[in-house]
Specification:
- Among the domains are: 451-543, Serine Threonine Protein Phosphatase 5, Tetratricopeptide repeat (Alpha Horseshoe); 551-677, no CATH class.
- Helix content is 67%, strand content 4%.
- The chain contains 35 helices and six strands.
- Helix 1 packs antiparallel against helix 2 (26-38) and helix 25 runs antiparallel to helix 26 (448-460).
- Residues 601-609 have low confidence and may be disordered.
- The protein binds one DNA strand of 10 nucleotides through helix 4, helix 6, helix 8, helix 10 and helix 12.
- Residues 591-683 form the DYW domain.
- Pfam families: DYW_deaminase, E_motif, Eplus_motif, PPR, PPR_2.
- One of its GO terms (molecular function) is RNA binding.
Length: 683
DNA sequence: TTAGGGTTAG
């Protein structure tokens, strides 16, 4: 009775008393073991089971084994589990379907699927639980194809699935990001007459979230209100789980507003750490990184304190990485160090590497990397990506070699990063070598993303003809990213012919991308083909496509300041413009000539020069100079690619100011120092 | 006495 009520101490007292008086029997041993398992204290459950087997004079029966096996499973204690299995075989208890199922499940949970499958095949009598344990076992170790084929076999053998089977299959699809398939299974489940429950809905919502299927997510929401939520015998924790899954679904499907409304409807004392995390993560992934950081601060400062877990911290760092919010990111790093996050540290540390490198301080990312106790493939590739973004190609390739020495096998993503690093550092020959080697030496077949990297690599280096030849040689259809790489390279090298070709291909495939139109009109402007510029602009106008406004932000003393082109809204605008005018006068004396083609207007050169001088990145720089301590770097982030004229101006300005200018644009980092830029023209 | 569930990184 005490055991069933969760009163572990009381149950133990009664058990010890019975033992002392010598009147304990197998049932009392079984009950106490079960009580420990239920309380989550599997270690003590195992200890008691051992005492029962060796010291008590009683012989474990089928119930004892069924009690102790889940404890082995949840500890991953496969050696003890195997001993229990051997005991069952010796005692002839393995015929019992309960015992068989528990053994099978123990092997599955310890990741020993081949052992589990052997047990499954040898079972003379299988029930639905046996099949379900096998299906979920395969699914959870990532052998989802085998899980599915078992699921299909169940149909063939006319074994009727129950809610557990259906939910497990839905969850399997959802975990792999195959939301549409999850939805299909859900429909089949409803047709089969099986009634979805909370677990089904939570799994399904996770699938909708990963598929971005808002409509089906809403349908699931209706179903939840009608049939599942707020039922009298529901555990309130289960209801919250569904609500959390709904918030996550709405946020990931682009309805952060709806998600926020649901979040606000839950009173703070009812929210748990996942409620906060899904909302923060939703903002961070939907490009509302400012909202994410605001909520993160609110979470750690609220009266009803809930400690952020590794997931929350990762989401916060992701938001910092997007915004290049170095100061906030550093504060989160300090928070981690103060608050002991021992478990699942790898994930958080990987986020730290990413945050530091995307915020302009790749050396700090390297320090995090060097201090890691355990590293996985993502740790190595994150560091490599960082070096690549900063144009430090040699160091990126060094990381690649060290990674191989550490025994890690490069995969498709690794090679994207390697090629990206070569491209951004102008290491053309090495890039070609790696591209040739990836299939030959590593067995990684180049995908469309690797071809895109190669087009980028050759294109940046001005080898446009070779890039075009490579596209023609591709064994698959080029995706927009391939043509976009060719188009960017054509813009960089002022090649109208290739630019037009790539732009036409791109507009055939996806006509909504403002970036393609802007690049093409830049190419025409550079060639002074104003009629073509006007034509592109009129197409944009008639199709309603608008160029995204350029926007830059800089971390000043009083927080982050944001600027748009020609922006006069900042309270210090007057001063900012004075600084800028003065700087431009001074660099003109050093040889700077405004590159008017970037102004995109068919007006006379003097006026174009004026428009250029108000580009957002220049305004951000002037503000940075006003608010940054002498000698400290100025960190600017831009949402689009830096304009060529601004790039040239910043190179000159870095000769006359006592700051390094660290600029992150949508493509990479530029470090301007003493008259040169780290990108060496490769942007 | 056995089976299923939500949030994170390249």
């Amino acid at each position: 009775m005490y055991g069933r009520c969760g009163a572990l101490d009381d149950a133990r007292k009664v058990f010890d008393e019975l033992s002392e008086r010598g009147i304990g029997d197998v049932v009392s041993w079984n009950s106490i073991v079960a009580t420990y398992v239920q309380a989550g204290d599997c270690r003590n459950a195992l200890r008691l089971f051992d005492r029962m087997t060796w010291d008590s004079g009683h012989v474990p029966d089928a119930v004892s084994l069924v009690n102790v096996l889940p404890a082995c499973a949840s500890l991953g204690a496969s050696i003890q589990g195997k001993q229990v299995h051997a005991f069952a075989l010796r005692r002839g208890l393995s015929e019992d379907v309960y015992v068989g199922n528990a053994v099978l499940d123990m092997y599955a949970k310890c990741g020993m699927l081949d052992e589990a499958s052997k047990v499954f095949k040898q079972m003379e009598f299988k029930d639905l639980v046996s099949w379900n344990a096998m299906v979920t076992g395969y699914s959870q170790v990532g052998r989802f194809d085998e899980a599915l084929s078992l699921f299909e076999k169940m149909e063939v053998e006319k074994i009727e699935s129950n809610v557990v089977t259906w939910s497990a299959v839905i969850a399997g699809y959802a975990q792999r990001g195959h939301g549409h398939e999850a939805l299909d299974v859900f429909r089949r489940m409803c047709l089969s007459g099986s009634e979805p429950n909370i677990v089904t809905l939570v799994s399904l919502l996770s699938g909708c979230a990963s598929a971005g299927a808002l409509h089906q997510g809403k349908e699931t929401h209706c179903y939840a209100i009608k049939c599942v939520l707020n039922k009298l015998d529901n555990d309130p924790g289960d209801d919250l789980m569904v609500i959390n899954a709904l918030i996550d679904m709405y946020a990931k499907c682009g309805s952060a507003g709806v998600a926020r409304t649901m979040f606000d409807l839950i009173t703070p004392e009812h929210r748990n750490v996942v409620t906060w995390t899904v909302m923060i993560g939703g903002y961070a992934q939907q490009g509302e990184a400012n909202g994410a950081l605001k909520l993160f601060s609110e979470m750690v400062n609220q009266a009803n304190f809930i400690k952020p877990n590794a997931f929350t911290i990762s989401c916060g760092l992701m938001a910092c990485a997007r915004l290049a919010a170095l100061r906030f990111g550093t504060q989160i790093h300090a928070y981690i160090l103060r608050n002991q996050y021992d478990s699942v540290m790898v994930h958080v540390e990987n986020c730290l590497i990413d945050m530091y490198s995307k915020s302009g301080d790749i050396d700090a990312g390297r320090v995090v990397f060097d201090h890691m106790q355990h590293r996985n493939t993502i740790s190595w590739t994150s560091l490599m990506t960082g070096y690549g973004m900063h144009g430090r190609g040699d160091e990126a390739l060094w990381v690649f070699n060290e990674m191989r020495k550490a025994g890690l096998v490069p995969d498709g993503v690794t090679f994207v990063v390697v090629l990206y690093a070569c491209s951004h550092a102008g290491l053309v020959d090495q890039g070609i070598e790696y591209f040739d080697a990836m299939d030959r030496d590593y067995g990684v077949v180049p995908g469309v993303e690797h071809y895109a990297c190669m087009v980028d690599l050759l294109g940046r280096a001005g080898r446009l003809g070779e890039a075009m030849k490579l596209i023609k040689r591709m064994p698959m259809q080029p995706t927009p990213i391939v043509w976009f790489s060719l188009l960017s390279a054509s813009r960089l090298h002022g090649n109208v012919e290739f630019g037009e070709y790539a732009a036409n291909k791109l507009l055939d495939i996806e006509s909504e991308n403002d970036g393609s139109y802007t690049l093409l009109s830049n190419i025409y402007a550079n060639a002074r083909r104003w009629k073509d510029v006007a034509r592109v602009r009129s197409v944009m106008k008639s199709t309603g496509i608008r160029k995204r406004p350029g926007c830059s932000w800089v971390q000043g003393m009083k927080g982050t300041a944001t600027f748009y082109v020609g922006d006069w809204t900042h309270p210090q605008s007057q001063q900012i413009h004075e600084v800028l005018t003065d700087l431009i006068l001074r660099i003109k004396a050093l040889g700077y000539v405004p590159q008017t083609s970037f102004a995109l207007h068919d007006v006379d050169d003097e006026e174009k020069g004026d428009l250029l001088s108000e580009h957002s990145e220049k305004l951000a720089l002037a503000y940075g100079i006003l608010t940054t301590a002498p000698g400290a770097p100025i960190r600017i982030t831009k949402n689009l690619r830096v304009c060529g004229d601004c790039h040239s101006a910043m190179t000159y300005i870095s000769m006359i100011i006592n700051h390094e200018i660290i600029l992150r644009d949508s493509s990479r980092f530029h470090h301007f120092k003493k008259g040169s830029c780290s990108c060496k023209g490769y942007w």
